[in-house]
Design brief:
single chain; 176 residues; alpha/beta; six-stranded mixed β-sheet; 6 strands
Length: 176
């Protein structure tokens, strides 16, 4: 399921350049979910192509795989103004698209607080749940889920960087 090219299910349509659809492969059953497109992603129409994407891709490379080996998407498909977090209403509007992307997943990696809030319903501190695997329900089906830090959180936080690297290494081991 994909949004219509002129999707107007929420107000994010007002400022977007592109609807940012998933990138990568559905074949491995591993999906990385971020919160929302940023400016670079909105301009290019592809998720995680800015600084956060460079961090993510670098860690993937170090772990022996690339973005083409997994699926990368976001909770919402359009950029929120000034890169703010997506609202609950915006995430609800895009939820059918996200669920269709996750339906056949075996493992979902939640990148950051917004993705974890949307997929787990979690409102607490990230450091309490990072790299603690749980099961989430996607359209009546249990799916393995690992919450972790968003790559942007690792820019100035060494602990966040180490934990995200640990998550990525876990995925790399699964892909071998």
């Amino acid at each position: 399921m994909r949004p219509e090219p002129d999707c107007r299910l929420c107000g994010l349509c007002e400022g977007r350049t592109n609807i940012v659809m998933p990138d990568g492969s559905y074949d491995t059953g591993i999906v990385f979910v971020g919160e929302a497109p940023g400016e670079n992603e909105d301009n290019k129409g592809r998720p995680f192509v800015g600084r956060s994407g460079q961090i993510l891709e670098g860690m993937m490379h170090d772990a022996g795989f690339s973005r083409s080996d997994v699926l990368i998407t976001n909770t919402v498909k359009c950029r929120p103004p000034n890169n703010r977090d997506p609202t609950k209403e915006e995430m609800v509007a895009c939820r059918p698209f996200l669920e269709s992307e996750l339906y056949d997943a075996e493992l979902v990696i939640g990148l950051g607080k917004s993705a974890c809030r949307d997929l787990m319903g979690y409102e607490g501190k990230m450091d309490e749940i990072v790299n603690v695997p749980i099961t989430i329900n996607i359209r009546g089906r249990d799916v393995n889920f690992i919450p972790t830090y968003h790559p942007a959180a690792t820019i100035y936080n060494k602990n966040a960087r180490a934990e995200l690297r640990r998550t990525i290494e876990t995925v790399g081991e699964m892909l071998r």
